[in-house]
Amino acid sequence: MFHFLSQLDGSLLVWIQNLLVHDMFTPFFKFLTTIGNAGAVWIIISVILLVPKKTRPVGIISLIALCGSFIIDNMILKNLIARTRPYDVVSGVQLLIARPNDFSFPSGHTGSSFAAAVVLYRELPKKYGVPALILAALIGLSRIYLGVHYPSDVICGALFGSIIAIFISSAFHILKDDGNLRFLDRWI
User: Fold this and answer.
1) Would the pLDDT of 1 be above 80?
2) Transmembrane region positions (predicted)?
3) Is the overall model pTM greater than 0.90, yes or no?
4) Which of 39, 95, 119, 185 has its CA 20 to 30 A from that of 173?
5) In the chain, where are the structural domains located?
6) What does the alpha-carbon distance between residue 188 and residue 185 come to, in Å, rounded to a whole number?
7) Which among 87, 85, 119, 122 is positioned nearest to 104, based on CA atoms?
8) SS3 for the chain, per residue?
9) Is the model's pLDDT at 177 over the cut of 90?
10) What Rg do the C-alpha atoms of the chain give, in angstroms?
């Protein structure tokens, strides 16, 4: 059963690439992946949110969610599952960027993107949250487009990042409402 699902995942990746990959789009998707490297765009946004006192809690929650995503996705799950990258095992996959040197599952780019974007969606007005979710989805799609992840890597990265964001955001508010974060009062 696992072999069948893996083959289906690989076939879906090749189909998506055959449908979407074009010289005109490749620079755009490379740019998206680049800003998603190490969660860079999300770290920058989170740090900017730390500046105004009004959005400081959102910046804190986002940075904690990013750390959680890094630990769970990149340090634990990637090494535990050790899934080979699709370009090494699926014929027809076009690798359009340099080879990543870690495992495939889950997509760390997508996990960190959704960890931060879901926090922004939950904590900020929707005029900021919705574009954040769209950017997160595009960064995830870029990983498939560029041939470095299976669709299931990206879907699970989005799911794990979203769960982490919801957990961290909820825990932050529960602790704050219970007075357990008083040590942060002068900062937030």
Assistant:
1) no
2) 28-51, 58-77, 128-148, 154-175
3) yes
4) 39
5) 2-184
6) 5
7) 85
8) CHHHHHHHHHHHHHHHHHHHCCCCCHHHHHHHHHHHHHHHHHHHHHHHHHCCCCCHHHHHHHHHHHHHHHHHHHHHHHHHHCCCCHHHHCCCCCCCCCCCCCCCCCCHHHHHHHHHHHHHHHHCCHHHHHHHHHHHHHHHHHHHHCCCCCHHHHHHHHHHHHHHHHHHHHHHHHHHHCCCCHHHCCCC
9) no
10) 18
Crossing angle, helix 56-69 and helix 151-177, to 10 degrees? Answer: 130
Q: How far from each other are the two terminal CA atoms of the chain, in whole angstroms?
A: 50
Q: Enumerate residues 6+ apart whose C-beta is below 8 A from 162.
A: 114, 115, 118
Q: What is the largest CA-CA distance in the chain?
A: 57
- Placement of tokens 């990265």 in the chain: 157
For the chain, what is the mean pLDDT?
92
Let me know: does 21 contact 145? Beta carbons within 8 Å. yes
